[in-house]
């Protein structure tokens, strides 16, 4: 797989988590509370500006879902290895409201996640 391009979404940011399968995988399924190995790109919904990407670092990342933002905890389970999924995550399921102390507080985020493995 190659680094995905995230298309700009017109209109107002969604108030709820939006899950869109770009590619449906055929491997093992991610489960809530499990550990996943992923490649991902994250952009701000409003600007389309990239704020984080495992692709840019040149290596996939493995971590337990329970340690991630709620939008990932809710949006990755059910995904299968080999799949690519886009998550549009409102602030409440990301880094909280504006003024929350994180640089991305108050922002709707869009991630494209490639699921490489589950543990």
Automatic annotation (TrEMBL):
Residues 33-119 form the PPIase FKBP-type domain. Keywords: Isomerase, Rotamase. Belongs to the FKBP-type PPIase family. Its EC number is 5.2.1.8. Pfam families: FKBP_C. The keyword Isomerase applies. This is Peptidyl-prolyl cis-trans isomerase. SUPFAM superfamilies: FKBP-like (SSF54534). It is an enzyme of class 5 (isomerase). The lineage of its organism: Bacteria, Bacillati, Actinomycetota, Actinomycetes, Mycobacteriales. It comes from Nocardia bovistercoris.
